Amino acid sequence: MMAETNGPLQNSNPLFIRGDVGLGKTHLMHAAGWYIKKINPNRKVVYLSAEKFMYQFITSLRNKDIFNFKEYFRSADVFMVDDVQFIGGKESTQEEFFHTFNELINSNKQLVFSADRPPCELKTIEERIRSRLNCGLVVGINATTFELRLGILQSKVNDMNMCFSNDILEYLAANINSNVRELEGALNRIIAYSKYNNAEITIDMARSILSDMISSSNR
């Protein structure tokens, strides 16, 4: 594990996580960053979205503070950028990202990126960046199974100290299969409806208030 070593994972630098919207890339990156800090508190872990990287870069240029910007990111032990596809078409941001990437990789630091498609399909990102993103380990997050969706729902319900019958959770897991965000949204909708209407949570209620989500998910 990269959390348990002082350097990057062998043959896995950069680590590139590919997955469709809502499959948990951001949660996975947050969990990895948290775990690294827990195991090795002295390591500097920098996590941010690609949009935030771009915003901070533009702000540093506007404020004539580019030196501190470079120093902050290039001193990271672990550099994690989520949804890297969003730097596509942003020439100056890509230029800075490219040099930050090179500086960190040459300093033997761990890099972790995520996107909604593999590096070779990031057509609006420069070829030199795509080739670097593709030179480590590319892993995919696949669509969830019924068992995993049911486990996620059970965990959420337990965390909220709420009582749901198994038939309701199984109904959600079987019918909301597009992504985890929609699954959690369906659960939250049921809970909100129950609270605001002081209504018992039943399978008939779930079917009624989720009819639009389920018809959309099953198209």
From TrEMBL:
GO terms for cellular component: plasma membrane. Residues 11-143 form the AAA+ ATPase domain. InterPro entries: AAA+_ATPase, Chromosome_initiator_DnaA-like, DnaA_dom, P-loop_NTPase. It comes from Biomphalaria glabrata. GO terms for molecular function: DNA replication origin binding. It holds the Pfam family Bac_DnaA. It comes from the Eukaryota. GO terms for biological process: DNA replication initiation. This is AAA+ ATPase domain-containing protein.
